[in-house]
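Appendix B, record 7
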Amino acid sequence: MKLASQCLCCSVLLGSMCAVAATPAPTGVYAPIFNVMDYGARNDGSASSTDAFRAAIEAAKKAGGGTVYVPAGTYFTGQSRW
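Structure tokens (predicted):
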């Protein structure tokens, strides 16, 4: 049951990000992309990616915005508070 709730949490989180990322930036405006893989996420489900997601979101926040990109795969995450 714990794994199911973590998968659901990740699905909800990813769905939220997809909805935000689907909104295009105004023409001529540069919006940085923060790939969770660059922050240590593993998309094979072999290790926790919670810290990588947190770091990518924090980097976007510090930059004043941008897109947190999550490539296709299976991510293992725990509870997060953003």
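Remarks on this record: Residues 2-21 form the longest helix (20 residues). Confidence is low (pLDDT under 50) at residues 1-13, 15-20.
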